[in-house]
Design a protein that fits this description.
The complex is a heterodimer. Chain A is mainly α. Chain A has 7 helices and no strands. Helix content of chain A is 79%, strand content 0%. By secondary structure, chain B is mainly α. Classes of the chains: A mainly alpha, B mainly alpha.
Chain lengths: 168, 479
């Protein structure tokens, strides 16, 4: 196994472990911190896939901003340190079954994929995830979808302000 | 007279000489490691630049801060620490207060490592928080270039004083800087103390607010030099905007001339991220003591030293982006041609050139650290609403306007001269406004005792909204 392979398995095992902690932990702060760790290991896997920019943005946006807000809200609301042990209901069983089914479907799809087509080599791989390449794609090829998405986000922000502060 | 001569001796010989030595050592260690394996220069740079240079400067800053605050408040400052043994001349040795640093370290190491009963249930997070506060600011320096690329030694290896020069340079800075907030907020929460929690919540709200301005402030610079690599930004600042003579003399394309507004935004926002006065509500010694109230010994020490490391890193990033990095303002090529080309004195000794430019970089960093100390001991603490108003209603709109104006001017004139004209006009306006504005204030409040609010010109013009009656009244203590 080469070094990237070893790193991949380390990141993958830690990622799954952290993601499991998010679900299993009864302390909301621990769950939030596990999610931060999961984002980190995911960023590591992005780096191994040559998607450096995505990896950094993952840390910057999710770990650095979104999860800080999560943590902030949990602290402000001072949720109890040990959440209630929720009973097993029909809804939870159905949800678990759906998640399991999705996992099985994804596994089947991945196994049937032709792995050789997606492999990048040499200079092509070096260029694949750079900021310059991302910029060309976002501000060139996909300019309209990009602007449409930003309009959507703006609408969401305005909506959040209107909902939160009805008397401005 | 003796004192002035001593200060001059230190400023002209000892400090530049020390940085020359550190830079030279960094080059040769990097050269050695590069010989062991490919990419080893980065490991060498981690050892010398990050572990040694940044930590030494940060440690010395703890003393410098006390000394400088004492000078500003007309006190002597720490000078009592000495060795209580040996012959008389050793007992009388004070070394300008330098012995306070080992005394502080020993005190922190020997203090009881206390953990409050309420924090026991979150033992893991309580122990993790100081590390989470320290680690992000510590690794920030990895993308900051501290010296040029030179060809070194018999194997002619190309070595630069930078740990790594990734494609996403500045994004790395933003990403890692945004993680520092976990340390403070978790420390506040896991201490299980109302005051600590208040401090942690204040810290996280302040750091989230200023992250936006932090990023926006540098977008203009990224557009101007069309790169996000700090190394390339530094190299781009060698060109001249205007040449005054036929020789190697002119106005360099330094970021401060091109993007003064960007500099103010970045500096103010980064200052808020360091959580130092006037942005020190998360600590607020006089009211809540801060998010680290339950930490003792070296755990507290980690929080404290991370603050000083942040000061150094902020100064280094500002130097690399806005003040030409390791470059001289002018005459660099002429000097190189005079000393290092074929047949000249230092021909073949490129490391001298590299170390010389490296010491230039560190001197600029020291100057910016000093500006930060000046601001920290000049301004009183902002109220919470003032901090949020400054962040969201002043810095953010100013940053957006700056992005649009910069984009238009860069498109219009790629030689950047019109951008520089606007930038210099803004600089002159800021200096004029700051001097005129505080001049009147000072006449009315002569009892202030701070001679001249010189720091205004360096990044805090927007803070003129602080009520005049509180200015100079609060002098926060050291930790």
């Amino acid at each position: 196994m080469s070094v990237p392979d070893v790193l991949f398995y380390i990141f993958a095992v830690c990622l799954v472990g952290a993601a499991g902690m998010v679900v299993a932990s009864r302390n909301p702060i621990n769950a939030a911190m596990s999610l931060v760790a999961a984002f980190f290991f995911l960023a590591g896997i992005y780096v191994l896939l040559w998607a450096h920019t995505i990896a950094v943005l993952q840390v910057l946006v999710y770990a650095g901003a979104v999860m800080v807000l999560f943590l902030f809200v949990i602290m402000l609301l001072s949720l109890s340190e040990r959440g209630p042990r929720s009973p097993i209901t029909v809804g939870r069983i159905l949800g678990g079954a759906a998640a399991l089914g999705l996992g099985v479907v994804i596994c089947i799809v991945v196994l049937k994929l032709d792995g050789s087509a997606a492999t990048l080599t040499g200079a092509q791989a070096m260029r694949f995830g750079t900021i310059a390449r991302m910029g060309e794609l976002i501000y060139g090829t996909y300019l309209f979808p990009f602007e449409a998405v930003s309009l959507l986000l703006l609408a969401a922000i305005v909506g959040a302000v209107v909902v939160a502060k009805s008397r401005i | 007279m003796k004192r002035i001569l001593m200060v001059l001796f230190w400023m002209v010989l000892v400090i530049p000489g020390a940085f020359f030595g550190i830079s030279a050592a960094a080059y040769w260690v990097a050269y050695f490691f590069e010989g062991l394996f490919r990419g080893g220069a980065g490991v060498g740079n981690i050892l010398v630049l990050v572990l040694a240079a940044v930590m030494i400067v940060a440690t010395l800053l703890t003393l410098a801060e006390r000394k400088w605050s004492a000078a500003m408040q007309d006190r002597v400052g720490p000078n009592r620490a000495h060795i209580e043994a040996g012959p008389t001349f050793i007992q009388k040795m004070r070394l300008g207060g330098l012995l306070h640093i080992p005394a502080d370290v020993l005190k922190m190491l020997w203090k009881e490592d206390f953990m409050p009963a309420g924090a026991r249930s979150n033992r893991f997070l309580f122990n993790l928080a100081p590390m989470l506060a320290f680690a992000p600011v510590f690794v920030l320096f990895c993308v900051v270039p501290a010296g040029p690329m030179i060809t070194l030694g018999e194997q002619a290896r190309k070595i630069a004083l930078i740990v790594s020069n990734p494609d996403f340079g500045l994004l790395y800075v933003f990403a890692i800087a945004s993680l520092a907030v976990y340390g403070t907020s978790l420390a506040g929460w896991s201490s299980n103390n109302k005051f600590a929690l208040l401090g942690g919540v204040r810290a996280s709200s302040q750091m989230i607010s200023y992250e936006v301005a932090l990023g926006l402030g540098l977008v203009g610079m990224m557009m101007t030099f069309s790169t996000v690599r700090l190394f390339d930004m530094t190299e781009a600042q060698t060109q001249y905007l205007w040449k005054f003579t036929d020789g190697d003399f002119g106005l360099p394309a330094w970021g401060i001339f091109l993007q003064p507004v960007g500099f103010l935004l970045f500096f103010a926002a980064a200052f808020a991220e360091t959580k130092r006065a006037p942005f020190d509500v998360p600590e607020g010694e006089s009211e809540i003591i801060g998010y680290f109230v339950e930490y003792s010994g070296m755990r507290f020490g980690l929080f404290m030293i991370s603050e000083f490391v942040e000061v150094v890193v902020l100064a280094a990033i500002c130097t690399a982006i806005f003040f030409g990095g390791w470059h001289l303002p002018f005459g660099e090529k002429a000097l190189y041609a005079e000393l290092f080309t074929q047949g000249k004195v230092f021909y073949g000794h490129q490391w001298i050139w590299g170390a010389f430019l490296g010491s230039i970089f560190w001197l600029k960093v020291l100057a910016l650290c000093w500006v930060q100390l000046l601001i920290r001991w000049t301004f009183p603490r902002f109220r919470y609403d003032q901090i949020q108003t400054l962040g969201w209603k002043m810095l953010l709109p100013a940053g957006l306007v700056n992005v649009f104006v910069t984009g238009a001017l860069v498109l219009w004139d790629p030689s950047l001269r019109w951008l520089a004209v606007l930038g210099i006009a803004v600089l002159v306006a800021i200096v004029a406004l700051a001097t005129l504005g505080t001049g009147g204030e000072e006449a009315a409040h002569a009892h202030d005792g701070h001679g001249g609010h010189g720091a205004d010109a360096h990044g805090h013009d927007a803070h003129a909204s602080v009520p005049a009656h509180v200015s100079g009244a609060i002098a926060p203590s050291t930790h």
